[in-house]
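Protocol step 4 of 6: structure prediction from sequence.
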Amino acid sequence: MNISGWQQALTLFFAVIPGFIYQGTRSALRGPSPNDREIGVRVLRALGVSGFLVLLYIALIGPRLKNVLTQPGFPFANPQPAAWILLGLIFVVPITSAVVLDRLQPMRRITNRWAKAGFSVYDPTPTAWDFATDQMQVGFVRVLTKESSWVGGYLGENSFLSGYPESREIFLEQAWLLDEGGAFVEPVNGSLGVWIRCEDALLVQFLAEAVNEVVAREDPQ
C-alpha cells in the first residue's frame, strides 16, 4: 500500500505532537522541573508519551481506527468527522491525561509517604526552597538580610512565593515592622504588600502562629 503525503504527516503528528502537548500541559499546571531545561530529555519524554498513546490507541480502538484512516478519500471526503477524530486523539486525550495526573498529585504524595516506610522514593522537588514553599500555609514570614536586618510580614492568600527555576523571592500581602531582634511590632500603615528578595538572605523563617503570640513570647513587656 502506497503511503500518501497526508498519511506521512499524520504519522509524524501521532509520533511527536501528543507527547509535546502532554508535556506542555503538565509544565503549565505544576511549573517547570530541572529536566525541562534539557532539550534532549524533553524530546525523549515527548516521544515516549506519544509512543505510549499510540500503542494505547491501537490496543483499544485499533481495528476501528484502521478502518477510518484507510477509507477512500479520507480525510478530504468527509473532513469534519476526521477533524474531530484527530483533535481528540492528538490534543484532547493528552491534555486530559495531564490534568487528571496533576489532580492525582496529592494522592501520590500520600502514597509516597507510605512507601518511604519500606522503600527509597525519589522526590522530584528541585530545591529545599521549593519543598518548603510548596507546602506553605497562611502565616507570617521574617527574613534576616545579609545586612543583618529583619524584614517580614503576613503571608496570606494574596501572597506569592517564587519557585524553580526563578530566583527565590517572596511577595507578602502586608508588611510589618520588626525590631532589631526580629520580633513583630505592628503592621506598616497603608501597606499594600512588600517584595523580598531572598537569594542572599541569611535566614528565612515561616511562622504559623498569630503575630500577637509571637510578640508576647519574644517581648514580654
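Step 5 (inspection) to follow. DSSP finds six helices and eight strands in the chain.
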